[in-house]
Amino acid sequence: MKNSRIKKINSLVETNFVGLYDVEYTNKLNQDKNWIVASRKDKKELDEIYLNNKEDNIDAVVISAFHKESKKLVIIKQFRVPINNYIYELPAGLVDGGENIEETVSRELKEETGLNLLEINEESSNNKIYLSPGMTDESVAFVYCTCEGNISNEFLEDDEDIETILISQEEARKILKGSEKIDVKAFLMLQIFASLGEKIFI
């Protein structure tokens, strides 16, 4: 096991969904430094991960879904408070306690889009990738899957302002050439889908 270069974690603020921590660490020149880290984990869990080398669990799933009947990519347009605007994204959501990846994907896909999970492509998916390691330890499972059914917003939570859109290859190309805001995961997925189409889901 690697020796942790992190020496101490101080909690700045903790809420139900995210915490902010002042992390004391030693850099490559053996100098003591501080780094502000945002995490979905509480201080007790972070202590175990940073100081005792405990394996961290994923926080969420990101869903790259192909709608079987229409042969289109599922994306969403969601209002996000930090940018005070709507942005193209992939469906996603936090893992609830005790859920496995498939259960979370099925639940979040239904909640955000109204669509039903058919099958996960395990070969193309990745069970843990990191989103923005310069500021957060947040990790997700990036899941390729197929789905079916009709779009619905009846399962959205009160604070979710989401429009679900089924995108063809040509529509993906138009979005990529446009000026609307796009999340980096959705941007990369739209590029791949515009180039390869449904091949990436088979």
Bin the strand percentage.
35-45%
Count of DSSP-assigned helices:
4
H and E string? EEEHEEEEHEEEHH
Task: Report the average pLDDT across residues.
Answer: 95
Number of E-type strands: 10
Estimate the global geometry from the Cα principal axes.
elongated
Uncertain segments are none
Largest sheet: 7 strands, mixed
The separation of the N and C termini measures 38 Å
**How helix-rich are the residues, as a percent range?**
10-25%
Q: What is the structural class?
A: alpha+beta
From the alpha carbons, calculate the radius of gyration and give it in angstroms. 19 Å
Please explain how this structure is put together.
The structure is a single chain. It is built from four helices and ten strands, in the order βββαββββαβββαα. The chain is of the alpha+beta class. Strands 4, 5, 6, 7, 8, 9 and 10 form a seven-stranded mixed beta sheet that branches. β1 (6-14) and β2 form a beta hairpin. The mean pLDDT is 95.
Key attributes of the depicted protein:
22% helix, 202 residues, 3-stranded antiparallel β-sheet, 4 helices, 10 strands
Quick recap of the structure?
The protein has 202 residues and is an alpha+beta fold.
